[in-house]
Amino acid sequence: TYKYPDALANVNYIGDRVQAAGFAFKNFCAEWEEFGLDVDRDYWDPAHFNIYGAEKVTARVAPWLAQAYALGDHRGEKAYGDWEADYAEWLGNEAEYKADIDGRIASGSQ
Asked: How far apart are CA 46 and CA 53, in angstroms?
């Protein structure tokens, strides 16, 4: 069951508008429990994911987006070099970000 019924009404409204404009839309709220999200570990606050939640959501949403919009893989292409540099920087900092979140979770300050 999706935890925020008022937000669900907004998602349904957005979905209607997106589909009316001719675009694919998937309401993932019905599958929310299947994402394996942990309220105590995966959220920064009630409306935002931290890195752990973002990883879980991305793993479920990205494949659907790639298929629905025929998104190609542009890794290694010169035009997308900035994306690759940003991703490399992210990977270099990932452990530090996770350690910070783990510390906040352990102290109850997240």
From this structure: 12
Q: What is the dihedral of CA 69, 28, 84, 50, to 10 degrees?
A: 170
Residue 71 has phi, psi (to 5 degrees) of: -80, 130
Which residues have a Cβ under 8 Å from the Cβ of 31 and sit 6 or more positions away? 60
Average pLDDT, the chain: 90
25-76 pLDDT, tens digit per residue, is 999 887 888 999 998 899 988 888 999 999 999 999 999 999 999 999 999 9
Helix ranges (DSSP H) in the chain? 5-20, 51-68, 81-107
The number of angstroms, rounded, from the C-alpha of 40 to the middle of its chain's C-alpha atoms is 17
State both tokens at 53.
């939640």
